[in-house]
Write a structure and sequence with these properties.
about 240 residues; alpha/beta; SIR2/SIRT2 'Small Domain'; three-stranded antiparallel beta sheet; about 30% helix; binds nicotinamide-adenine-dinucleotide
Length: about 240
């Protein structure tokens, strides 16, 4: 913790790269932990149910799963989200690059957030492009339909879909210009997102995760624990 505080004290261009583990302390399950979504029993795997193919071939089943598991509208930012917003406000953090789709970084006050996998808070009609809120999707029954009759699709990147180019280039540019990269709450197994940490050229590479990752051995500092608990101890 002392080393982490020293690194943060001497850094002025921190970038945070996070995943589902950043939101578990807000009560949102991740995918690959013991209590994660992928350990629960489904007749069809979550990877299939969250794929582009399934969205178009089994639209109603997609939305049943999506509304039940992917729309945690009651969740609140935890200490990790709040500390990162504070670091940005104090001019020490350049950007948050997240694989999460829950919008909790923005809810905590973060401004420069690159959502690699999109957001549950943006939804649009596939026919006319009209926008809808996550609350409207949550309140819908069956397949959510636009006033024009078109299907409303969440702007989340499903398996088999491309990442948004502007989001990726913004994320990569931020990581490449950072003096410190903090990677946290991610298994680093979802590609291409996980590969973007490879663009880091700065001084301090820090990893905070509950379990080990392939990046551990490349890091200057590895803290195995809960990211919210750890970041809450940092003084800004
Ligand atoms: P993952 O489930 O593959 O891995 C999560 C990692 O976080 C694990 O290594 C786990 O040990 C660690 N972890 C869990 N809680 C933690 C905590 N409190 N502190 C520190 N570490 C913790 O998640 P991933 O790597 O982000 O990849 C999965 C994909 O799942 C992403 O693409 C993301 O879009 C999606 N997802 C998002 C949400 C969300 O938006 N909150 C939730 C579930 C999944």
């Amino acid at each position: 913790m002392k080393t982490l505080q020293e690194i943060i004290d001497e850094s002025s261009k921190i970038v945070f790269f996070g995943g589902a583990g950043v939101s578990t302390e807000s009560g949102i399950p991740d995918f690959r932990s013991e209590d994660g979504l992928y350990r629960q029993k489904y007749t069809v795997s979550p990877e299939t149910m969250l794929s582009r193919g399934w969205f178009f071939s089994h639209t109603e089943e997609f939305f049943t799963f999506y509304r039940e598991k992917m729309l945690p509208l009651e969740a609140k930012p935890n200490a990790a989200h709040k500390k990162l917003a504070e670091l940005e406000e104090k001019g020490k953090l350049l950007a948050v690059v997240t694989q999460n789709i829950d919008g909790l970084h923005q809810k905590a006050g973060s401004k420069n957030v690159f959502e690699l996998h999109g957001s549950i808070h943006r939804n649009h009609c596939l026919s006319c492009g009209k926008s809808y809120t996550a609350e409207e999707i949550a309140a819908s029954v069956g397949v959510p339909k636009c006033s024009c009759g078109g299907i409303i699709k969440p702007d989340v990147v499903l398996y088999g879909e491309r990442l948004d180019e502007d989001t990726v280039s913004g994320a990569v540019r931020s990581i490449a210009s950072a003096d410190t990269l903090i990677v946290a709450g991610t298994s680093l197994t979802v590609y291409p997102a996980a590969s973007y940490v490879g663009f880091f050229r700065g001084k301090h590479l820090v990893l905070i995760n509950r379990s080990t990752t392939l990046l551990d051995r490349k890091c200057e500092l590895v803290l195995h624990g809960k990211v919210g608990e750890i970041l809450s101890e940092i003084k800004v």
